[in-house]
Automatic annotation (TrEMBL):
The keyword Zinc applies. Its main location: nucleus. This is PHD-type domain-containing protein. Keywords: Metal-binding, Nucleus, Zinc, Zinc-finger. PROSITE patterns: ZF_PHD_1, ZF_PHD_2. GO terms for biological process: positive regulation of DNA-templated transcription.
Length: 310
């Protein structure tokens, strides 16, 4: 696939303006064009309903005329899984990826499963007039006015409330951890079955097994999205599979020896697991340090109070 705009042409050398291209038989207007891999003519994106953002996604381009003559059909690369990104996924990369870059993998999971970012500023605001540890220290120096809202009990209850506010986020993280764990377990069961069924087929005298190439081994449940998979895990079938720790039978299994469709399924499935684990790890660490910070403030405040009451 080739493409160009007038300014930075990597196509044919600039030609007199009379030269006409495309289905419209008009000259190069300077707008983005795409080259046909069949007839080598150039086509205005607008005339063939393609946009410059398609550039990296078109694998091979065949113009309407060439498609009609059966010279070929336009093929597309797989797009990066992040909806806002128009780059091609590194599906044939090493390792293969559903994303154009590791950063977009992380961004995809952050946007898909937000775990309620915790805003540190909120805690400080809630602890009344006291913004940080040094604030607490200064507070200890003051003689509080009677009925002050900054009394020890008030501040402690505010801090306790903040710590409690972290609970739903901890729950969310634990839920994701469990889901990722289930996915991971399922992948290893699918791997086991790939080998087992491959051996079975060989035993059954499967003629196609010559050369002992592994079967594809992809399982349709690997294509489920997060919710569907969670539902399946809770179904009778899913619970049975997980309690036995084995994927029996061949239902949902791809037994092709040379499978283009599911190529790299294992590494791509593992990529998602790794990305999510990384993200969960980051969130857990952030939450933990938030909690520790809160408890530390509580301790400092208690110490201050004890000194003051002496
Ligand atoms: Zn045109
Ligand atoms: Zn053509
Ligand atoms: Zn991307
Ligand atoms: Zn397959």
């Amino acid at each position: 696939m080739k493409s160009r705009t007038l300014q930075h042409s990597n196509g044919p050398p600039k030609q007199p303006l009379e030269t006409v291209y495309c289905i419209c038989r008009r000259p190069d207007t300077g707008k983005w064009m795409i080259g046909c891999d069949g007839c080598d003519d150039w086509f205005h994106g607008e005339c063939v309903s393609l946009q410059p953002t398609d550039e990296d996604l078109v694998d091979q381009y065949f113009c309407p005329g060439c498609q009609e003559k059966g010279f070929g059909t336009t093929t597309w690369k797989r797009k990066c899984r992040l909806p806002s990104c128009h780059n091609a996924a590194l599906i044939a990369g090493d390792p293969p990826s559903k994303y154009c870059s590791p950063e977009h993998g992380i961004e995809f999971f952050k946007s898909k499963y937000p775990l309620a970012d915790y805003c540190a500023g909120e805690i400080s605001a809630l602890a009344g007039a006291v913004a940080d540890a040094s604030g607490f220290r200064e507070l200890g120096n003051d003689v509080p006015a009677p009925g002050s809202t900054n009394s020890r009990a008030d501040i402690e209850s505010l801090l306790r409330r903040d710590v409690e506010k972290l609970e739903p986020q901890k729950d969310a993280i634990n839920r994701r951890k469990n889901r990722v764990g289930a996915r991971s377990k399922f992948i290893s069961m699918a791997k086991d079955r790939q080998k087992r069924v491959g051996d079975e087929l060989r035993g059954e005298g499967d003629q196609t097994s010559k050369g002992s190439k592994e079967i594809c081994g992809f399982d349709i449940r690997l294509a489920m999205d997060d919710e569907e998979f969670a539902d399946w895990c809770e179904s009778e079938e899913g619970q049975g599979v997980f309690s036995q720790g084995i994927l029996n039978g061949r239902e949902g299994l791809c037994t092709k020896r040379k499978c283009e469709k599911h190529k790299y399924w294992l590494r791509i499935a593992m990529e998602d697991i790794e990305l999510e684990e990384r993200l969960i790890g980051e969130r857990s660490t952030a939450l933990l340090s938030e909690e520790n910070g809160l408890r530390q403030r509580q301790n400092i405040k208690s110490l201050m109070e004890n000194q003051r009451l002496r």
